[in-house]
Amino acid sequence: MTIENLIKHSNAKPGKLAVNVHKFGGSSLATSECIERVIDIICRHCQINDIVVVSANGGVTDQLFTLCQLAKDDLSVEEPLESLQFQLQGLIAQLLNEQNSAYLTQQLHDDFQLLSSWLATDVKSHRNDILAFGEIWSARLLSAVLNERICPSHAVDARDFIQIQSEQNTAVNYDISRNQFEQIKQAHQLTIATGYIARDLEGRSCTLGRNGSDYSATIMAALTGAANVTLWTDVDGIYSADPRIVPAARKLHRLPNGVARELGRLGNPVLHVNTLKPLDEHATHLHVASSFDSETSGTEIGKFGFLAKQELSVTYSNDVLLVSSEQLNSMTLSEATERFSPICFDERNALMVIKQEQQKTVSQWFASKVGEVTFKPVAIIAAVGHKVASRGDVKARFKRALENTKTLDIVSSTSEHSIISVLPDTCSPELTNLVHHEMTKDAKHIGVIVAGLGNIGERFLEILPAQIKNQSVLENVHLVGLLSSQKALINTDGINPKHALVQFEKQAKDYDEEQLLTWLKSHPYDELIVIDITPSERFSLLYREFFKEGIHVIGANKWAASSSTEYFNGLTALAAQNGSVWLGNTTVGAGLPVNFAINDLRRSGDEIGAISGIFSGTLSWLFEQYDGSQPFSKLLLSALEQGLAEPDPREDLSGRDVQRKLLILARLAGFTLSLEDIECQSLVPENLSHLSTQEFLAQADELDQPFAEELERAKEQNNCLRYIAKFTIEDGKLNAKVGLAFVDLEDAFANLNPCDNIFKVESQWYQTNPLIIQGPGAGRDVTAGGIHSDLVAICEQLSTKQHQVKIKGINE
Ligand SMILES: NC(=O)C1=CN([C@@H]2O[C@H](COP(=O)(O)OP(=O)(O)OC[C@H]3O[C@@H](n4cnc5c(N)ncnc54)[C@H](OP(=O)(O)O)[C@@H]3O)[C@@H](O)[C@H]2O)C=CC1
Ligand SMILES: N[C@@H](CC=O)C(=O)O
To answer: How far apart are the CA of 98 and the centre of ligand 2, in A?
Structure first.
């Protein structure tokens, strides 16, 4: 959604568009710069009938609390009051034009009069009215800026419609609240509502406690049946552990509702348990995203399938108390658990663990039941994930992680989605890291998209199920996408590799490049690999987009690796910059380890001076077979049928394919050159070079005569025909050439198995006796095998890769 859409929809019938709720926290609204960022997000993500919920501008609520405390202690409030008013006036002046600024400043002035009088006379009974000012000022200012610059909007005070039982029991009276909201909402205007505040049954101002504005947002979603709630905050999602403590924490892209609730219950700083309550009965999805980095995908909370249910996270708390008493029997304990929803309890040992802030009420209640109970400061560490309490493997790993730690008990919590260990001492960062490592080490989920389901792609997929089963490093690899030139099947929850092509046949939709790129920007996987087994230049041009998103590429397609020097250098730099791995070992020699060998020599300090050989499986097969007894064109069609030749065999015959391969190897060997620097002899007669592939194949017999004549000439000299590639560097001068040659019948190049490639590498270390790599250089099995080898290599690299989590104010 853009600003144009926002304005365009201001004339739409509000009922026609699904409502979305966006909530911005205090730090997202702290300065005029932050507010500008929020305006930008609103322009790009909001529709006119959406609701924007705001917290007080960063720091304002704290100052209001301080003012209340000072007034309560009979201390002077004059200076902090002035400084707060000055700060707010500053924001107004920076963001609004003169006229609007004057209007808002006047309103602010009136509010401060009232505020001063409450502070002076009756701070106790007006405490919540005072705190409510923070959100009112914030909503009023944002609405004024939107009205002045973007679209019609109106600021609403949530106390005018949200009715809760009381400050202690924040359950919402939905019927009354919905009715009241209906009356105050205005069509064709963006609603800017205050978070954090509501009224109780007596009409008194109430606050909604910690993360209260998030709760306000989900209440408003429930009132309006909103499709989505986005909590725009200062972190970019929910992580598998607190990323400030656990640097290896991974972002959880999708959290099932139940798991999110459990994380909130155990004290996750972003997800408060109240926030999720209003969503229980609605199909509303909750997103957590960063207002400081709005294009990065955050965490989505909702109903999800298999993959999201596999995710595990680790959370801890040092602010908990163990409640125990000799008189505590199972009946009282069960009554207490019903009443206080403890973090966990153990009936066998008659104990329960509560949050520190519950101590007073729990103590009073037990005093009236069994007398004194003991409270002991303890800590907890928990593994959280979908139904982990009944997953033996998860429990076993959790216990193993804690085997050298003193624990009081390991219990399933009141929720089926966590296993909790009670610790007698504080939970250290080291322990949190250790447990997180044990619980999540195998859980880096890698999505794979296969583009190109032809000759090689099909074989790659046939082998995939056995590879996933047998290669432990592929354990968490999920096939998520299949693409041909016209059709695409993307399934975020994974495509069963055993039935990949059947599913593709049945379910694939028209291939839309834009849709693919959009999906790639917000996919839920820790890592994503695109395997390009197409012959398409167009597809290779998408690598830039992939690398921008940190996506990895395995290419059997030679276009990108043999593109112009400038483009190629740009691509490799972009990949390095974004942590993308790009492998393409099958681009030369199919599955032969020639690229590995050259890389390895250079990495070890060797210097390569020349590379030569037979680099085309097709041309090797053709010239090893071609003795004049059958027409050349017949052999060519046979090479095509066997899957040796390129989809258009002129790529092979023209020498272009070999030219690309020589370029790729020369680049690997450390030289800067482009295709034009490699002299190339084409074996395709001019009159056949501009036809379509089908036309060319239909006229392929026109090749027979010229090839027969060439063979005769070679035979006369007791030679044979071979298509040779050669690259040398002498006195700094580069000489690169691919073409047909007459080769002595005794030469190593003349005595290969049909289809074999041979690579002769001359280097400082291999001068007098060159390094030779020889073997099949094309074909379904070896090429598909080579791509699998790249997949294993990438997954091995990724299993040790750590993400640097960026947190505003910590490391950014
Ligand atoms: N044959 C071999 O021994 C070796 C081949 N290679 C390379 O492997 C690649 C594939 O070869 P091969 O399997 O023989 O080719 P095929 O022609 O048999 O298959 C190509 C596949 O790519 C698909 N495709 C074409 N363009 C696009 C596009 N823009 N987006 C998505 N998919 C596309 C085709 O779709 P559709 O069916 O709709 O046309 C088809 O599924 C080539 O780059 C080749 O150079 C590398 C080493 C060895
Ligand atoms: N057509 C190519 C296939 C491998 O790259 C060849 O024949 O070598």
So the answer is: 71
Per-residue confidence band for 476, with pLDDT thresholds at 50, 70 and 90: confident
Digit-coded pLDDT (tens) for 632-649: 999 999 999 999 999 999
Ligand 1: nearest atom to the Cα of 453: 41
- Ligand 1 center to residue 162 CA distance, Å? 59
Cβ of 644 below 6 Å from ligand 2? yes
pLDDT value at position 672? 93
- Active site amino acids: 661
Query: Which residue reads 């205005």 in tokens?
Result: 186
Q: Classify the phi-psi angles of 177: left when phi > 0, otherwise alpha if psi is within -120 to 50, otherwise beta.
A: alpha
Whether this model's ipTM surpasses 0.90 comes out as yes
CA dist 65 and 72 (Å) reads 10
Q: Are 723 and 658 in contact (CB under 8 A)?
A: yes
CA 456–ligand 1 middle distance (angstroms): 7
Taking residues 498-518, report their average pLDDT: 95
Nearest Cα to 315, choosing from 352, 280, 254, 270?
270
Q: Is the CB of 645 under 6 A from ligand 2?
A: yes
pLDDT digits (tens, 9 = 90+) for 45-58: 999 999 999 999 99
Is the shortest distance between the CB of 652 and ligand 2 below 6 Å?
A: yes
CA 69 to chain centre: 44
Round to whole Å and give the CA distance between 812 and 804: 11
Query: Who contacts 164 (Cβ-Cβ below 8 Å, separation ≥6)?
Result: 170, 171, 172, 173, 198, 199, 200, 206, 208
Average pLDDT on 262-276 reads 86
Whose alpha carbon is nearest atom 30 of ligand 1? 485
Q: Which atom of ligand 2 is nearest to the CA of 621?
A: 7
User: Are the C-beta atoms of 809 and 234 separated by less than 8 Å?
Assistant: yes
d(CA 145, CA 135): 15
- Quote the ligand 1 centre to 556 CA distance (angstroms): 9
